[in-house]
Specification:
Rossmann fold, eight-stranded mixed beta sheet, about 35% helix, binds S-adenosyl-L-homocysteine, alpha/beta
C-alpha cells in the first residue's frame, strides 16, 4: 500500500485495512459504497481515455431519441407549461445536452435538474449544460410540477448488499483483509429473516444480492410521479427476472479487474434487478410501462431512420455512425444486456417502445 491518492488523501485500501484490523470485516455494501464515492469524487471516468464508455458517449442518437421519447409523452399529456427535466448521475452531461436539444425542437423546454454526487463531474456538467441546477440527492427536487426523469448507468453504481447461505444459515457477505489482500468472507450474525421464504433452504454458497439504494430511488421517483405527474426512464445493464449470485464487478481502463483490489480506483457496479424495481415502482404509485431490451427499444424509437439522416448529412461519417448504432443495438454488444424501464404517472399516456 503506497502513499496518497490523486486527491491527496490516504488510499482507501489503507483506510479499509485499518478499519478491518480494528473492528473486523466490513459489509460488501459499505465496501462498494465508500469505494464508489471515492472513485467518482475526484475524476471523470468516462470516455476512451478513462475507464469506461457509456451509451450517450457512443453516439448523440442515444440522447436524442430519449429527448424525443420525453417530448412525445409530454405532448400527449397535454404539454404542461411548467415541467422539470431531472437526470440522475448525468456523467459528462452529454445525454442531457442531446436530449434537451432534440426535445427543444419538439417544443419542450423544461427546467433542468441534475442529481450528482461528484464535484469533478459537476464541473464537467456545468460546461455542457450551464442552465442546470444541482442536487445532492432527490429530496431537494422541486415538487410543484411534473418531472421527466432519466437515469443512465446510475443504479448500477449504487452499493449492493449480499447475503450468503452458510452451512448453518444465511449470513451477510463481508469483506475481510488477510495476507495483505481484501477477500469476501462470511459474516457471523444470522440474517435468515431478510431472505425470501423459498430461498431459506438454498444450498450452501448461494448468494442473494439486493440494492437498497436503487429501491429507495425508484420508490421516491414513483411517489413523485404519483403526486406531481410525469414519466421516468431507467437504463442500465441488468436482468429482467430475479437471479441468485454475485454480480459485483470492477472496471478500470476498459478491462474487468478484481473488485477486491485497490478499492476507490476502479468503477464498481452490479447488475440491476429490474423485476424487483418494477414492483417497487408500482407499490409507490407509478405505472410500470415495461422493461425492454435497449436494442429493441431504440429500434422502435427509430434509430435506423436517425442514423440514415445523420449519414446523409455527413457522408464521411457514415461508417462511424453505423458502428455506433450497432454498438447500441446489437445483442452481442449493448442491445440485449442493457434494459430500459419506463414509468409514468397515473393518468399519463403510455410511452413509445414498450
Ligand atoms: N449517466 C452518465 C454517467 C454514468 S456513471 C452516462 O451515461 O454517461 C454514474 C454517474 O452517477 C456519475 O455521474 C456518478 O458521479 C453518479 N453517481 C454515482 N453514485 C452516485 C450517488 N450515490 N449519488 C449521486 N450521484 C452518483
Amino acid at each position: 500500500m503506497s502513499g496518497a491518492d490523486r486527491s491527496g488523501r490516504e488510499p482507501l485500501s489503507t483506510v479499509f485495512a485499518r478499519l478491518i484490523a480494528n473492528f473486523g470485516p466490513i459489509s460488501i455494501m459499505q465496501y462498494m459504497g465508500e469505494a464508489n464515492a471515492r472513485y467518482y469524487a475526484a475524476r471523470d471516468p468516462l470516455g476512451a481515455a478513462g475507464d469506461f464508455v457509456t451509451a450517450p458517449e457512443i453516439s448523440q442518437m442515444f440522447g436524442e431519441l430519449i429527448g424525443l421519447w420525453l417530448a412525445d409523452l409530454w405532448q400527449r399529456a397535454g404539454a404542461p407549461a411548467t415541467v422539470h427535466y431531472v437526470e440522475l448521475g448525468p456523467g459528462r452531461g452529454t445525454l442531457a445536452r442531446d436530449a434537451l436539444r432534440a426535445a427543444g425542437k419538439a417544443g419542450l423546454a423544461p427546467q433542468v435538474h441534475f442529481v450528482e454526487g461528484s464535484p469533478a463531474l459537476r464541473a464537467v456538467q456545468r460546461e455542457a449544460v450551464p442552465m442546470a441546477q444541482w442536487h445532492d440527492d432527490l429530496s431537494t427536487l422541486p415538487d410543484d410540477a411534473p418531472i421527466l426523469l432519466v437515469a443512465n448507468e446510475f443504479l448500477d453504481a449504487l452499493p449492493v448488499r449480499q447475503l450468503v447461505r452458510a452451512e448453518a444459515g444465511w449470513r451477510e457477505r463481508m469483506v475481510g483483509h488477510e495476507d495483505g489482500g481484501f477477500r469476501p468472507v462470511i459474516g457471523d450474525r444470522p440474517i435468515d429473516v431478510a431472505v425470501p421464504e423459498h430461498l431459506r433452504e438454498a444450498e450452501a454458497g448461494t448468494i442473494i444480492e439486493t440494492c437498497p439504494g436503487a429501491a429507495a430511488v425508484v420508490d421516491e421517483v414513483a411517489r413523485r410521479l404519483a403526486s406531481q405527474g410525469g414519466a421516468a426512464l431507467f437504463v442500465d445493464y441488468g436482468h429482467a427476472a430475479f437471479q441468485t449470485g454475485s454480480t459485483l464487478q470492477a472496471v478500470r481502463a476498459h478491462r474487468k479487474v478484481d473488485p477486491f483490489v485497490d478499492p476507490g480506483e476502479a468503477d464498481l457496479t452490479a447488475l440491476v434487478d429490474f423485476a424487483t424495481l418494477a414492483d417497487v415502482a408500482r407499490a409507490g404509485g407509478a405505472r410500470w410501462l415495461g422493461t425492454t431490451e435497449q436494442g429493441a427499444w431504440l429500434r422502435a424509437l427509430g434509430i435506423e431512420a436517425r442514423a440514415a439522416a445523420l449519414s446523409r448529412a455527413a457522408p464521411a461519417q457514415a461508417e462511424a455512425i453505423a458502428i455506433a448504432r450497432d454498438r447500441l443495438t446489437t445483442p452481442d454488444q449493448m442491445g440485449a444486456l442493457f434494459k430500459v424501464m419506463g414509468l409514468a404517472a397515473p393518468g399519463w399516456p403510455d410511452g413509445a417502445g414498450f
